[in-house]
Amino acid sequence: MTTPALPLTIEDAAASLRTGATTSTALTRTMLDRIARLDPALGAYVTVTEDEALAAAAGADADFARGCDRSPLQGVPLVVKDLIATRDAPTRANSEVLDPGWGGGADAPAVARLRAAGSVLLGKSTTNEFACGLPERTARFPFPRNPWNPEHTPMGSSSGTAIAVSAGLALGGLGTDTGGSVRGPAGANGCTGLKVSFGRVPKNGVVPCAFTLDTVGPMARSAYDCALILDAIAGHDPGDPYSSPVPPDRYAEGARDGGAEGLRVGVPTRYFLDSPLLDGEVRTAVLRAADELADAGATLTYVVVPHAQEANDANNITFLSEAFAYHRTNLTGRWDEYGRTTRELLARAAFFTGADYVQAQRVRALFRRGLADVFAKVDVLLTPVSFTAAAPIATADLAAALFRPGFHGPWNASGLPSAAVPCGFTEAGLPLSFQVVGRPFAESTVLRVADAYQRRTDWHLRVPPTASADDASADAAHPRAAHQRGAHRGFAGSTPTPEEGAG
Amino acid sequence: MDDTNTAVDEAESALRAAGLSLSEDEIVRLATGYRALRAKADALSALELRDDPPIDPVAMTRTAALPGESARP
User: Domain of life, per the record (chain B) (predicted)?
Assistant: First the structure.
């Protein structure tokens, strides 16, 4: 039996499924085989729901055969972060502490919507414990590895979904983002990830991290694929008190609505591009991306985002305080059952007072007021995703992120949408990424900017050497499988400085 | 050295007040960041915002407008 060529994107897969070039069953079988071959070394999956996935794929094929086409996701294999409840697999949050029955055997609304759209769920992806700690080699959960260099961190906490997408073990999936957990791993692993506006996607059925910051968002190779997923999962759900009544856009349509022509892109200097902590390769790649957008018709403006540092600190205080409030009883009674980095991160919330928490909420409001002035001048902001490319695992330090500036937290604090978009590689062969930030609920604009960039570049289509080496043998009958195009070969060289993140 | 000891004492006191009884090693490890985290919280407290309302996470989900803007479509 030959292995069918593997589409690189959801967009490609959707086209192939509709022309009959492939079937969902063949596509799903290929993914499952790749997971079996590659995932023991990558640690992207906590649970693979093979039987359920093949049954869903057969259902999708039957639907196609009788002319039923639910959405562009029909028959497309996706993965769900193991913080989000699914009916066919336990939700563990990478922890021995969480009740094994958490979620009650039901799908979270975001998952139910993916199923209703006809997608095929391959299983649950690795996360950091409760979206907080660092992976531990001694735990009985998979240890996630960056497919571009297994000795470098894949970042967290939506590491599993990012690894799976990058290595071709799923075409897309769901992550969660409280302080950068979609954007950090997307950036580290070379895929696209969207942190949605607070309230855009219902978060009931998701293990809480910080209740005023948590979001559920799409991750995939391309911004357009993220838009296809967002089209399925966005919208109000009465079970989530923070679920927005603002009607969702048609995101895929919006992403292709006009390109970058006429858009005003703000490039923040102070705190962002001017930071002395920013690695030179990152700065160069981000500025090159800005120039690419200018060539595509966008207008670049250098701007100052007031109180960005304070907003990031307010996010950290909020994150830790709310997460500690959720875990306090278990931390006092079951301290040793938590991973060391998780419990020691959460315990630091004790250093803040109630007044600190309230002041952090005032600072968040102050930051949003300042953003009104910024977004009067620009449509989106363009920043780095992280100060450096992915750090070596040995030097990754979760707590250190609390003491440094950060590029993720301000947008969680303010509830704005922001996407991580691949924009190059370091000399050492590690992915680089920029961040696009939009107004509240302007996901379409954010995705439009990202899509405009991705239609002029192919960084998001590069395949890690480990995954492409596997393809060379497995897909021998198809020597130029679609996902090999532009495969990045990597270089030898430098070592980035430590960088890690949580939430 | 005195400052280090004070930071450890203050960190331990805060951890105990939160109901956490940790080992000496854990307290010392956590205390290394105590001053830096307090400095960040104190810097936020120095902003004169006591008459400002805190962010309302529910209200934030109700509109695409930023504060001070009129309602956006």
Answer: Bacteria
Query: What angle (nearest 5°) sits at the alpha carbon of residue A472, between those of residues A61 and A60?
Result: 5
Report if residue B28 sits inside a domain.
yes
Is B62 in Cβ contact with A361 (below 8 Å)? no
The string of DSSP codes covering A444-487 is: HHHHHHHHHHHTT--GGG---HHHHHHHHHHTTTSTT-GGGTT-
User: Best interface-test mutation with B: which of A359, A373, A377 has the largest number of B CBs within 10 A?
Assistant: A359
With contacts defined as CB-CB under 8 Å, which chain B residues touch A381?
none
- SS3 state at A401: helix
Q: What are phi and psi of A397, to 5 degrees?
A: -135, 105
CA distance A13 to A11: 6
**For testing the chain B interface, which of A209, A362, A373 should be mutated: the one with the most B CBs within 10 Å?**
A362
Domain-embedded: residue B41: yes
Q: Scanning every residue of chain B, which has its alpha carbon at the shortest distance from the alpha carbon of A359?
A: B45
**Six token digits for residue A464:** 């890690």
- Write down the ipTM of this complex: 0.95
What would the pLDDT profile of A229-268 be if each residue is shown by its tens digit? 999 999 999 999 999 999 999 999 999 988 999 999 999 9
* Residue B26, domain member (yes or no): yes
Considering only CB atoms, A344 lies closest to which of B29, B65, B72, namely: B29
Q: How far is A256 from chain B (nearest CA, A)?
A: 20
Residues 6 or more apart whose CB falls under 8 angstroms from that of A333 comprise none
Measured in angstroms, the CA of B58 and the nearest CA of chain A are apart by 6
Which residue in A has a C-alpha nearest to residue B31's C-alpha?
A: A348
pLDDT digit string (tens) for A417-466?
Answer: 999 999 999 999 999 999 999 999 999 999 999 999 999 999 999 999 88
Buried b (16+ CB within 10 A) or exposed e, A464-489: bbbbbebbeebbeeeeebebbeebbe
Beta bridge partners, A215, equal A177
Alpha-carbon span A245 to A233, nearest angstrom? 14
Reported as type and span, the H/E element at residue B25 is: helix B24-31
Q: Does B58 fall in a domain?
A: no
Q: Are the beta carbons of A124 and A80 closer than 8 angstroms?
A: yes
Q: How many domains does chain B have?
A: 1
Residues of chain B positioned with their CB less than 8 A from the CB of A314: 44
* Burial class of residue B5, CB neighbours in 10 A (0-12, 13-18, 19+): exposed
The closest CB to that of A372, out of B43, B62, B67, belongs to B67
In Å, how far are A147, A347, A502 from A156, measured between CA atoms? 14, 19, 6
Please check whether residue B9 touches A, CB under 8 A.
no
Nearest CA in chain A to B64: A440
